[in-house]
Amino acid sequence: MIGIADRIAVVGAGAWGTALANVTARADRSVTLLARDGATARAMMTGRESPRLRGVPIDERVAIAALTESPPRGDAILIVVPAQDLRSTVSALADTIAAGTPVVTCAKGIERTTRRFMTEIIAECLPQAVPAILSGPSFAVDVARGLPTAVTLAAADEEVAQMLSRSLGSSAFRPYHSTDVRGVEIGGAAKNVLAIAAGIVSGRKLGASAAAALTTRGFAELVRFGSAYGARPETLTGLSGLGDLILTCGSPQSRNFSLGVALGQGCDLDAARHSGHLAEGAFTASVLVEMARARSVEMPIAAAVAAVLDGALTIDAAIEALLTRPLRSEGWQA
Description:
Blueprint: E1 7-11, H1 15-26, E2 30-35, H2 38-47, E3 62-66, E4 76-79, H3 86-91, E5 102-105, H4 118-125, E6 130-135, H5 140-144, E7 149-155, H6 158-168, E8 173-178, H7 181-203, H8 208-228, H9 233-236, H10 239-248, H11 255-264, H12 269-272, H13 281-294, H14 300-309, H15 315-323
Parallel strand pairs: 1-2, 1-4, 2-3, 4-5, 5-6, 7-8
Antiparallel strand pairs: 6-7
């Protein structure tokens, strides 16, 4: 394995893809940012900013191209597309990825139709590649502007994880490496659902005490789910688990939190989504609950979010159901 991935391609030119392209340039790597359509690529070449990240310049060292015209080439490839689009995106790249190339998913979710985690999709669609995942407490605008951020970068092979961390790391962007791929995936997927619940609490003006209780008990659900699916405890209490949950459950910069706020204020789901910003938790909630039930994991907060999103419960009914649950001892298994 090479010591550094010097040439890196970033597939997906939304806010997070643009931020990671800037990160890669600051790490003194050669980086190409690939938009998924030609019109977007041309507009970004001219304006040097992403339409999803207005006001934040794309580093002058970042090359911009259209994925339809220039397949990704590099020592490592970052796939920065929504979780539900990952399969179609990587499947289209099957004939262009060289054997042994690390392919890093930067999405936080679970595929609804298959219950597959993100690296499982990469392994299925790109069997010649080396799957990895980048996740953690990070807002795209902060990262793009070079504000201090720490994340987790995981691959099954520790040498690969270390190499990728060295390749992307800089004084302002610190990727801590891990081999607990599943734990990193679970933290990112589950926290999005719980952030919607936190937003509902805020939108309903239930108070800071309720918000703290929701986040803490939500973390207990994340830990139970992670334990059932093989995650390591230290990963769940680390950056990609607890760290990301704290960030996402407490800031209107979070798309999932903002969706919850809108729902809590009485907007219907379509109206709450009117801004066009993707809230991954809305797609993950139902499959997360299905997977929890399949292994007898109790996740009442996540289940309440899924029921609200599916129209099976009103917000008031969901809150009442949570508040009238039997009292019991505190603990991760409670």
